[in-house]
Amino acid sequence: MSIDKNWEMLLDYLESNQEKGNVLSNEELQRLAELRALVDETSDAFELYQSFNIEQKWIELRALGVSRGFTQPSPIVKQNTFKPWLRIAAAAAIVVMLFGAGLFYFNLNNKQKKHDQLAYKNDVSPGKLGATLTLANGKKIKLADAANGEIATDGGISMSKTADGQLVYLIKGSTESEHINTLSTAKGETYVLILPDKSKVWLNAASSLTYSTNLNERKTRRVKLEGEGYFEIAKDRSRPFVVESKGQEVEVLGTHFNINAYSDGPAIATTLLEGSVKVSLETNLSKIIKPGEQALNNDHGIDVVNVDVERITAWKDGGFALSGKNLKTAMREIARWYNVEVVYDPSISDELETGGWISRSNKLSTVLKLIESSGQVRFKIEGKKVYVSK
């Protein structure tokens, strides 16, 4: 009997016995039929199916409980029954399982590729180094377009742009007058500022820092932040460093900390990495936090919590730290960096969380695919809009 005839007998038998408790589904039957194309090519397959009566042996296989991946034999059948062909049956079952899994992933990959082609045909490049410096006289300098070297002077202060994307202030003469400057980043931009006292500030996308060029206001080094910034403050016990943001002040002498004060966030988050800071509200409420702690100002008070500081400052180091982060919070960060608008389907819950870590140097599609891999949401990019659905 030919192998084709054997296969036909097997398939006919299984199909005719669906009503009698056959354990294979219609989908599995289809996969089994497609497997024939593979085994037909081997001489071993011919010998294997010639070696036993298909109908009888399939009944025995089902009785032994091996028709779904070679499980343990049924208690009603002795374990040493059919030893001569049990190994062959097990091997055949494994082949069917492997083929089924391969077919499943092949179909899944094809569906994923089709989705990617449609969803990410309008990909978006990552943000870049860039910012705008606004001088006291109102002049605006786009740093991405400015040549490296000195770009402006203000009284006794020189402002220079470095090749690696930093704006550096140097004191060259008398600094009696207080001229106000603002460094601002648009969506999709980030920049580093070195103030006259050697303090260093990283500005995240869609943020700004306003300060006097001599950094001396009533014997206080005072700046105003909108958005997000990471600060490494030079020590100067005679002049505290104060960061104002949305009705809050953070006062330090010398330390490393991060402030997230975006207007679309639920709270101002001040995270301490080194030293100590005092967070004060306009209501005169204040709290001192320690390294590894975060002060959350939600307009009703200050809550202090312990956090993973590396996740908080991942943006400064060129990454998105998404593990355990609320999806919509993560998408706000992503939207600012890629300068896109996020549109949610009503079915998307506010409680969903993301996972993983990924570089901000990737294109938008790569970041979204990482989030998609959780199976909770799907994305589609159309122009400068990202649509989120289930």
UniProtKB/TrEMBL annotation:
Keyword Transferase attributed: no
Record-annotated membrane-spanning stretches: 85-106
Gene3D superfamilies tied to this protein: 2.60.120.1440, 3.55.50.30
Protein's UniProt keywords contain Nucleotidyltransferase: no
All copies of domain Protein FecR C-terminal, residue ranges: 322-388
Record-annotated FecR protein domain positions: 182-278
Any Pfam family matching the protein: FecR_C
Keywords per UniProt: Membrane, Transmembrane, Transmembrane helix
Superkingdom classification of source: Bacteria
Stored PANTHER family: PERIPLASMIC SIGNAL SENSOR AND SIGMA FACTOR ACTIVATOR FECR-RELATED, PROTEIN FECR
Protein name: FecR domain-containing protein
Organism: Pedobacter montanisoli
Organism ancestry: Bacteria, Pseudomonadati, Bacteroidota, Sphingobacteriia, Sphingobacteriales
